[in-house]
Write a structure and sequence with these properties.
- By secondary structure, the chain is of the alpha/beta class.
- The protein contains 14 helices and 14 strands.
- The mean pLDDT is 87.
Length: 312
C-alpha cells in the first residue's frame, strides 16, 4: 500500500511541474522539480542549513534530542534560530521514519548518502531524492555550490559567495597571516588521544582562504582521510602558531572545558604550546564553524579579525 500511494504521488508530481535532471553524488539520475516547493532534508547540520540559507522552501528536517529532552536542529538552531515551530520534524536523526516523510508530501528529498543510501529506492517512491556525500571530504564551498545548483538557487549562492570573497580580500589586505601556521584538532579525554583534521568545514575554509599555512602533519592524514589520530606524546608535532578546536554545548562542553581536556591528556601542554602561551589556542562552538554556511564563514572571519594583529 505504501508503494502504491507513494508511486501515485510521484507520478502526479512529475505531470504537474517542470523538471530538470540532476546526477547526484551516487550517480543517480534524478528528475528534480524546476522550483521545488516542499523540500524535506534528512540531515540537519548540513543539508537543512544550506537549504535554509539559500532560501529554498524547506518544510521539514531531521532533528535531535537534547540532553534535556527537547528537539533541536543541529547547526540550524545555533546559526539561524531554526526550530520545529517553524518547520516540521521529518524524524529523529538516525531513526528513519518513511511513513512520516510520506505524510509530509515532499516534492524533493535531500538525503545524506552516508546515512541513508540503503533507503534510496524507498525514498524515491515518495519524491525525487538527491543523495549528497556530506561527509566525503568535498571542500565546503564546492559541496555548497553543487547543492545550490541542484536546488536552482545558484544566483543566491553566488551573491553570498561574492560577499564572502570581498570580506576575505579586505581582511587579507589588513592582516599579516601568510606566514602563520595553524592546526585543527579534536581532543578525546576518554581515550587520551588527539585527532588532527585536514578539512573541517567553515573553520579550515576561512583559514586557507586567508592563506594561513596548515602544518605539514595536517597534510599527511592517512591515505585520503581527512583526519588522523595521534598520541599526546606527539604533541610537539602540532606546535603551530594557531591551534583550533571546537566544543559541543549539548554535551556539556564549553571553551574552558576543552582547554582542560588538553591539559588532562597532556599535562603541561598549555605551557608548552606556543599557541596557548600567545592566547592563540582557540576553541569555538562546533555547530557554528562546521556546518556549511556563509553565516558561519562570517563568524569565523570575525574571530580571525579579532585574533590576528594588523600589519604595522
Amino acid at each position: 500500500m505504501f508503494r502504491f500511494f507513494a508511486a501515485l504521488f510521484l507520478l502526479m508530481l512529475a505531470c504537474s511541474s517542470k523538471a530538470h535532471e540532476v546526477i547526484d553524488h551516487l550517480g543517480n539520475h534524478v528528475i528534480v522539480p524546476e522550483s521545488p516547493q516542499r523540500i524535506v532534508s534528512l540531515q540537519d547540520w548540513t543539508l537543512t542549513v544550506m537549504a535554509h540559507e539559500l532560501g529554498a522552501p524547506l518544510i521539514a528536517s531531521t532533528g535531535r534530542v537534547s540532553p534535556k529532552g527537547g528537539l533541536y536542529i543541529r547547526g540550524g538552531s545555533e546559526l539561524f534560530d531554526m526550530n520545529f515551530e517553524k518547520i516540521d520534524l521529518a524524524f529523529i536523526h538516525g531513526k528513519p521514519d518513511l511513513e512520516r516523510v510520506l505524510a509530509l508530501k515532499p516534492d524533493l528529498i535531500l538525503s545524506p548518502a552516508g546515512d541513508y543510501a540503503q533507503l534510496y529506492d524507498n525514498l524515491t517512491l515518495i519524491a525525487p531524492t538527491l543523495m549528497v556525500k556530506t561527509d566525503a571530504g568535498i571542500p565546503m564551498l564546492k559541496l555548497y555550490a553543487e547543492v545550490a545548483q541542484w536546488l536552482n538557487r545558484q544566483q543566491r549562492f553566488d551573491e553570498l559567495l561574492q560577499q564572502y570573497q570581498r570580506r576575505v580580500k579586505k581582511l587579507r589586505e589588513q592582516l599579516s597571516s601568510d606566514d602563520k601556521t595553524y592546526v585543527v584538532i579534536l581532543v578525546n579525554p576518554r581515550d587520551g588521544t588527539i585527532q588532527v583534521l585536514r578539512n573541517y568545514g567553515v573553520l579550515t575554509t576561512v583559514l586557507n582562504d586567508l592563506r594561513m599555512q596548515p602544518l605539514p602533519v595536517a597534510s599527511q592524514a592517512f591515505g585520503n582521510a581527512d583526519r588522523m589520530t595521534i598520541s599526546p606524546e606527539l604533541l610537539e608535532s602540532i606546535d603551530a602558531d594557531y591551534v583550533f578546536t571546537t566544543w559541543l554545548p549539548e554535551k556539556g562542553e564549553n571553551q574552558q572545558s576543552i582547554h582542560q581536556d588538553i591539559e588532562t591528556i597532556a599535562p603541561g601542554a598549555l605551557q608548552f604550546l606556543k599557541a596557548a602561551r600567545n592566547q592563540h589556542l582557540i576553541s569555538l562552538p562546533r555547530n557554528e564553524v562546521f556546518s556549511p554556511s556563509f553565516k558561519g564563514l562570517d563568524i569565523m572571519l570575525n574571530t580571525m579579525t579579532s585574533m590576528i594583529k594588523p600589519q604595522q
